[in-house]
Amino acid sequence: MDRILEARKRIALVAHDHKKEELLAWAFSCKEQLSAHELFATGTTGNMLEKALHLPVHKLLSGPLGGDQQIGVMIAEARLDVLIFFWDPMEAQPHDPDVKALLRLAATYNLPVACNAATADFMFSSPFMTEAYRALQTDYSQYLKRQLPNQSI
């Protein structure tokens, strides 16, 4: 079943420590556009965004303390429409498996993802950001019905 992303999007904003200032600068330049949507963010990023933008932000846990996983759950439960995740490709993160899982879920559920300012700019210049959009969903029913090898416990 496909998902309809309504005109007012539910947007998650996430940034690794060395990318927080870059995300803040981008968000400030898109403040008016962001104000039309519902915003979610992990821990410190959410506090910084709310203070800088004077916009309400639903704040989750810090990424390494479970915030990335909370966003992943929201993606799987169709409670998010867009992920803006400025991740740091030059620095290993202690929660890299969580980051990889989050990006895998976004791809699995065909969620728009921007990992840098250029992609976020392209995404936000799209007319789909301000109108309903039908996001095609892969049918995983065959995967769920697959035969598993017999395993002894």
From TrEMBL:
Reaction catalysis annotation: dihydroxyacetone phosphate = methylglyoxal + phosphate
Residue numbers binding substrate: 16, 20, 42-45, 62-63, 95
Active site as annotated: 68 (proton donor/acceptor)
Superkingdom, natural source: Bacteria
GO CC annotation, single: cytosol
Record-annotated MGS-like domain positions: 1-153
Protein family per UniProt: Belongs to the methylglyoxal synthase family.
Major enzyme class: lyase
PANTHER family per record: METHYLGLYOXAL SYNTHASE
Function: Catalyzes the formation of methylglyoxal from dihydroxyacetone phosphate.
InterPro entries per the UniProt record, alphabetical: Methylgl_synth, Methylglyoxal_synth_AS, MGS-like_dom, MGS-like_dom_sf
Protein name: Methylglyoxal synthase
An example Gene Ontology biological process: methylglyoxal biosynthetic process
EC number(s) stated in the UniProt entry for this protein: 4.2.3.3
